[in-house]
Structures are given as C-alpha cells and as structure tokens.
Amino acid sequence: MVDRPRRQRGRWRLQKNRRKILDRSFRPGRLAGRRPLATLAQALPQPAEGFLCCNLRTDGKWISDINYSENGKKLIPVGTPVKATGYGRQRVYIDLPDGKQAIGNDYSRNLDLTTFAQRYIVAEDPRRKLAGFSPKVRKAVESARVMPGMTREQVLMAVGYPVSSENPQLDAKIWRFWLSSFAEFQVVFGADDRVKEITTDAQTRNLVVMD
Asked: What angle do CA 41, 43, 44 make, to 5 degrees?
C-alpha cells in the first residue's frame, strides 16, 4: 500500500506538470492549435504573402485540396492575393481579400505542410502568364475548365492540383480529379506533356471540358 505522503507528492507533481503545460499553451501571442507568427519562417513558404496558384473553391471558410464543385461553394480565381498567417492540423490559415479562411490538406497527407502550402501560395502572380495565353486557353482557365493542348501548368491553374494520395507523381501521364465524390475526370497527357484527352462521363464533361 502506498503511504499518504507519497500519494500527496505524486498529486503535487501531477498538478505542477499540468500548470507547466497550461503556461506553455496560453502564452501571450499564441493561438490555440496554431503556431505563433514568430515561427512562420520555418513553417511556411517564402514569401508567406503571394498569390493563389490556381482556381480554388470554398464554402466561405474551408478550401479543400480535393476542390469539389458543390452547392454553396464559391470559386476563388487564380492569382488572388493571399497571405499565410499560420497553420494548424493539416491546414494552412490564410487571409484573402474577403476574409480569413483555411486551405485544408484533406487528401494529400503524404505531403508535409510546408510542401503543401508551397503548392497553393506562389510568389509570382499567375495572372501575368495567364495574360499571355491564347484567348481560348485563357477563357478555359478563367472558367475552371480544361481542354486538349493545355500544358500541365495551364491545367493546374484551371482546376488546381490533383490530390497526391491518388497522384503521387506530377509527371505521370494521367492526372485524376474529382468534381464531386461521384464525378471523376482524368486528364491524359501526351508525349509532349500537353493534354491529349480528358476522360469522364458526359455530364461531367459538360462541366469541366472546354470544347
């Protein structure tokens, strides 16, 4: 049987450890579940302020890497100014012109958060390159559609990155995308690394392919 003094010492140590944890968790300038801004340089791409790489869809708070097109979601255009403010569990907190949101790493968990953030926050405004595309390609990108003849970069700008859980290699000949959980479309690249064809069902084709 453990004597009373030893029990009391154990309780005292437990309470002391709890106080230490609480003190570390609620220091001024720290937000729960989020790294302090002082550590951003080690956690986020440089610069932490830039532009969205591509068209992304949001429900107003959450931007998922799967980029589903669902009722109530709004398209945030490629090149929108963005500032990374911190990160939490599988998410990057950002400021956009219309408010605070988070980019969620829902289906690319094999990427570390820094690499994930670097995909979506780029230093150079993609709209500069977009302006130099042919009118038809530019229209396709701006409407979040793909078409034969597009480069990989143009596809990314139009519909975002394919999730890495299904597309671990970006130099693969086929990229798998999902317009919804039931609507898959595959972008097939030729030997010249341009889109050769888009394979999907008729209904999804009408929504994602620029003819």
From this structure: 75
Contact 125, 79 (CB under 8 A): yes
Q: What is the CA radius of gyration of the chain?
A: 22
pLDDT tens across 98-157, in order? 999 999 999 999 999 999 999 999 999 999 999 999 999 999 999 999 999 999 999 999
Residue with tokens 């609480």: 22
Burial string for 107-126 (b: 16+ CB within 10 Å, else e) reads bbeebebeebbbbbbbeebb
We find that the CATH architecture of domain 37-122 is: Roll (2.30)
Using CA atoms, how far apart are residues 162 and 200, in angstroms rounded to an integer? 15
State the pTM of this model.
0.79
* Cα–Cα distance, 63 to 68 (Å, whole number): 9
Token pair of 104, please?
A: 């969620």
Tokens of 152: 């990989």
Confidence band (pLDDT; 50, 70, 90) for 46?
low
Phi (first) and psi of residue 134, to 5 degrees: -65, 155
pLDDT at 17 over 80: no
Residue spans of the domains in the chain: they are: 1-30, 37-122, 126-208
